[in-house]
Design goal:
By secondary structure, the chain is of the alpha+beta class. It has two domains: 7-125, no CATH class; 129-226 and 263-325, Rossmann fold, CATH 3.40.50.10990. The protein has helices at 27-32, 58-65, 87-100, 123-127, 186-190, 198-214, 227-230, 233-244, 249-255, 265-274, 287-295, 315-324, and strands spanning 7-9, 19-26, 47-57, 80-82, 105-108, 133-140, 149-156, 159-169, 178-183, 218-224, 279-283, 299-304. The N and C termini lie far apart (47 Å). 39% of the residues are buried. The structure holds guanosine-5'-triphosphate and zinc ion. Catalyzes the conversion of GTP to 2,5-diamino-6-ribosylamino-4(3H)-pyrimidinone 5'-phosphate (DARP), formate and pyrophosphate. It holds the Pfam family GTP_cyclohydro2.
Length: 330
């Protein structure tokens, strides 16, 4: 990156012989590794530059990077932390790892690492600018909840994720649609995972919209490809491993050096905008979704509670949502 060292992501590097004297990791990970001169970090995913007695290669770097492997690899270090004089690049690298869905850990100025790809920290601003999103195509899509449905696909030239909206019933400017802003959860939406409430929430939302359509209203499901609250599937599954060791969902993400909430809600506002919708009734228990959409210019005329029955496997997850993440759950 501009003005900084070359950084090789530990998880996805293909240069098998790469080696480096230093690694860049999150401060949460550094704290777990008990760095001797580690100061208290300002943010759990702030970066730390570490060195050990030997140089790092990809085999030794992976267990240093991945807290979900700690039980299998208890002995690491000792390491020391060095000052970073390329802080903006280090922060941008952590964010790039989050977006790519990989562990936030890099070899710094590696040798035998192949040719480096040049990036500027400001490239991230362009990536997160919602103006780049556009409607790619739309088609009729009868679904089991309603035969009267239409799918609209959205894409941005610089992002491979395809977000979709499912419009149920007849779009009308006279009535505000019932909207569900749903983030991808492969385990819950497709496999029927009992660890979260995503699958039942999705089904109930579609049923409620179909009901609206039967009464002359309409609804929109915004299905956002922001798996695991924006950390990606593999990192979410690493968080599940940590949850099996006793960490709750917030602490598990933080231990991975990742934010516990990294979704891009302005993107959902932009999708509504592209559909010509600026006032909605929103089905959610999450006040942050309401605030984020309102901040992006969408009027929420009503927050519709969207709480489904719990089960023994998701009870702790729902309690954590209520007690630590501010969800309005009873
Ligand atoms: N990182 C992480 N993500 C999870 C976990 N369990 C579920 N998720 C993700 O959490 C997201 C849930 O999204 P939503 O149901 O849209 O939103 P919400 O913030 O729970 O708010 P509601 O609108 O009230 O349902 C999905 O992207 C899931 O993949 C977990 O334990 N860790
Ligand atoms: Zn889920």
């Amino acid at each position: 990156m501009d003005g900084g060292p070359s950084l090789l992501p530990v998880e996805t590097a293909i240069a098998a012989n790469a080696k480096a004297d230093r690694m860049l990791i999150s401060s949460a990970r550094a704290a777990t590794l008990k760095l001797t001169n580690q100061r208290d970090a300002a943010a759990p995913h702030a970066p730390v530059l570490i060195r050990g007695a030997d140089s790092f290669d990809l085999q030794t770097a992976l267990p240093i990077a991945d807290p979900a492997l700690d039980l299998a690899n208890p002995l690491k270090g000792p390491f020391k932390a060095d000052a970073i004089d390329w802080q903006d690049n280090a922060v941008a690298a952590m964010e790039l790892a989050r977006i790519a869905g990989i562990l936030p850990a890099f070899l710094v100025n590696p040798v035998d690492a192949g040719e480096a790809e040049h990036l500027a920290a400001s490239d991230l601003d362009h990536w997160s600018d919602t103006i780049n999103l556009a409607i790619a195509t739309r088609a009729k899509l009868p679904v089991s909840a309603s035969k009267d449905a239409q799918i609209v696909a959205f894409r941005s030239a610089d992002d491979i994720r395809e977000h979709v909206a499912l419009i149920i019933g007849e779009q009308s400017s006279e009535r505000e649609p019932l909207v569900r802003l749903h983030s991808e959860c492969l385990t819950g939406d497709i496999l029927g995972s009992l660890k979260c409430d995503c699958g039942p929430q999705l089904d109930a939302a579609l049923a409620a919209m179909a009901d609206q359509a039967d009464k002359g209203g309409w609804g929109i499901l915004l299905y956002m490809r922001q798996e695991g609250r924006g950390i990606g599937l593999v990192n979410k599954l690493r968080a599940y491993r940590l949850q099996d060791q006793g960490f709750d969902t917030v602490d598990a993400n933080q231990r991975l050096g990742l934010p516990d909430e990294a979704r891009d809600f302005p993107l959902a506002a932009r999708m509504l905008d592209l559909l010509g919708v600026n006032a909605i009734r929103l089905m959610t228990n999450n006040p942050k979704k309401v605030a984020a959409l309102e901040a992006a210019g969408i009027t929420i005329t009503e927050r519709v509670q969207h709480q489904l029955p719990d089960n023994p496997h998701n009870r702790r997850y729902l309690e954590t949502k209520r007690d630590r993440s501010g969800h309005l759950l009873t």
